[in-house]
Amino acid sequence: MSMKKLDERDQKILALLERDARLPISELARQITLSPTAVRQRIARMEKDQVIKRYTIDMKRGDEEAGIKVIMILNLKGAHCKKLVAALGHLPELRKFWSLTGELDVTLLLQVSNVERLGDITSLISDHELVDKVQTHVVTQTHLDR
Predict the structure, then answer these.
(1) HTH asnC-type domain location, by residue (predicted)?
(2) Which among 45, 84, 113, 132 could disulfide-bond with 75, CB atoms 3.0 to 4.6 Å apart, if both were Cys?
(3) 110 neighbors 93 (Cβ within 8 angstroms)
(4) In a domain, 114, yes or no
């Protein structure tokens, strides 16, 4: 099912579940002004059509505020994202790894405990044979986190 076939109520269900996947059917029904049965049927249809693929949790990883969030942008020597994921995937600080189109090849989201560890990881990535250029950006403030 394409997103075009989702009506306004389907979109509202998805938005509410995205904020809280544990929201009871009765509360979804109340907020959308549908019967619980109708909401249940809509959710079942979206699951069947793979609009809703899974339900997950957002787990707190220790004291995140004490860590340093870092966005690292990489230019690679060729199209080697899968090889780089294999080489860096073991790093517990690596939270996200995105392949990009355009001038930049990869964006990483890291959560490091301190500046020394950031230096170690930056050196590890910079020295990797597949990496041509590294830009490191420390996140100073989060204005929106959904």
Answers:
(1) 6-69
(2) 132
(3) yes
(4) yes
